[in-house]
Amino acid sequence: MDETDPKTLLITLTGKDRPGVTAAVFSRLAAAGVEVLDIEQIVLRGRLVLGVLVSAPRDWKRLRDAVTETASALGMQVEVDRGVGDNKVRAVGRSHVTVIGSPLRAAAMAAIAGRIADCGANIDRIERMARYPVTAIDLHVSGVEPVELRRVLATEAAAQGVDIAVQPANLLRRGMRLIVMDVDSTLVQGEVIEMLAAHAGAEAEVARITEAAMRGELDFEESLRHRVALLEGLPASALDEVYDALVLAPGARTMVRTLRRLGYRFALVSGGFSQITDRLAADLSIDFARANELEIVDGRLTGGIVGPVVDRAGKASALREFAAAVGVPQAAVIAIGDGANDLDMLDAAGLGIAYNAKPMVRDAADTAVNVPYLDAIVYLLGISREEVEAADAEVGIITPAPPL
Q1: For residue 397, is it within any domain?
Q2: Low-confidence ranges of the chain (pLDDT < 70)
Q3: Which of 27, 112, 343, 357 sits most deeply, having the most CB atoms within 10 A of its CB?
Q4: pLDDT (tens digit, 9 = 90+) per residue, 321-333?
Q5: 247 part of a folded domain
C-alpha cells in the first residue's frame, strides 16, 4: 500500500444519528490541529452521513487511528481516504434541476441521472425539498449549459411522467422576483366565464368555445367577444355569486403567503374579468391586476366589454409594465399560465411555467408543473416544505402531519 504522506484526508462516517456525533469527531480533529477544507452532512431516515475534508497532519496515521477509535465508540463506520482534492466548481454550466413527482419512482431518477451523465455533466449535490404531498428533489448540476440541459431533460420528464425545471445557478434565484399569474384554471379552478354562462343557460356553448380558444384553435379576442355576448341580460349579482363559489387552486394561498414573506411581488393578468380579478387581488394581497371589464348597464350585463381586450399580446405587455413598475428585469419575472393566450407572457418572463397546461403550452414553456398543487412552485425557487411549514407555524398556521 502506498504510504507516502498525503496532503488531505477525507473522513466519512456513517451510522445511526444521535446528538454529539459531529462534536465528537471535530474534537478529535481539533486535537490534531488540522484545517477544515470542506464538510457535507445529511440525515436520511435517522442515518447520518458525515464527510469532512481536512488538511493532513504530519502524523496522519495517528489521526486516522484516533478517528477510527472515535467512530467505534459511537457505533459508526468510518472511512479515511488519503490525497483527496477539494471540490472543484466547474467554470461553466451550473444549474439547479428540480424534479417533482407524485410519486417519484427510482426508475425516473435513474433515467434523469443517466441523461445528465450523457450530457457530460455531473450531479454535485442532491437535496430534498418536499416529501408530501409531492416528492421534490433539487439537483445541483455542473458541466453543461442550462439551455442544453433543459432541452434534454424536458423529453425525459415527459417520458417518465415527472416535472423537471432547469434554472441557472445564479443570484437571481435568491433575489426578489415578480410572479405574474393567469387566473382561470391556474389561480382558481375552472373558468369564470363558464360559471357565469351557467347562470345564463349557455354553459355548454361557452365551454366549447373556451376549450378551442385555450388550445389556440380560435382567435382569443374573437372567441371572448362571442362568449361574452352570450351573457347579455345576466344580472350583475351573478358576479357576486360566481365569486363566492370560486375555489382556489390547492396551495395558492400558501404560495402567495410564503413568497410575500420573502419580498416577492405578485400580479394577476387574465383574459377574464376585472370584476372578479380585482376582488381576488384584494383578498390575496396581490400587488397588480389586469383583466377585461364587463360592461354593466342598469344592473345587467350588456354582452359587451369596456375598452381593449386583454389578449395574448396584452398579457405580455402587462407583464413588462408591471416589471418596470416593480423595478425588476424581465429575467426576474416568473410567469404561470395554462392556455394558448399565455404563451407570449410565458416567453417574456425569465421563467415561464406551464401549470397543468394544454400540450402546446407545455411544449413551449421553460418548464411544466403538472401536479395539482400551486405551492409546488416554491420548490423551484429553492424553498423547502419544511421551511414553509416552520414559517407558517410561527404565526399559528399548522399543517396536518403527512402520512408515514
Answers
A1: no
A2: 1-4, 84-92, 403-404
A3: 357
A4: 999 999 999 999 9
A5: yes
- Give the tens place of pLDDT for each residue, 160-183: 999 999 999 988 887 879 999 999
In angstroms, rounded to a whole number, what is the distance separating the alpha carbons of residues 4 and 213?
72
200 CB neighbour count, 10 Å cutoff: 18
Q: Report the CATH number at residue 343.
A: 3.40.50.1000
What DSSP state is assigned to residue 313? H
Q: Catalytic one among 138, 182, 344, 375?
A: 182
* Residues of the domain holding 35: 8-82
In a domain, 197, yes or no: no
Distances (CA, A) of 206 to 198, 228, 231, 235: 9, 9, 10, 18
Asked whether the CA dihedral 203, 205, 210, 212 is positive or negative, the reply is positive
Does the annotation mark 2 as catalytic?
A: no
Among 40, 61, 82, identify where a domain stops.
Answer: 82
Q: What is the pLDDT of residues 191-211, one digit of tens each?
A: 999 999 999 999 999 999 988
Segment (H or E) for 315: helix 312-326
Out of 138, 184, 338, 342, which one is annotated catalytic?
A: 184
10 Å Cβ neighbour count for 397? 13
Kindly report the CATH number assigned to the domain that includes residue 110. 3.30.70.260
* 366 noted as active-site residue: no
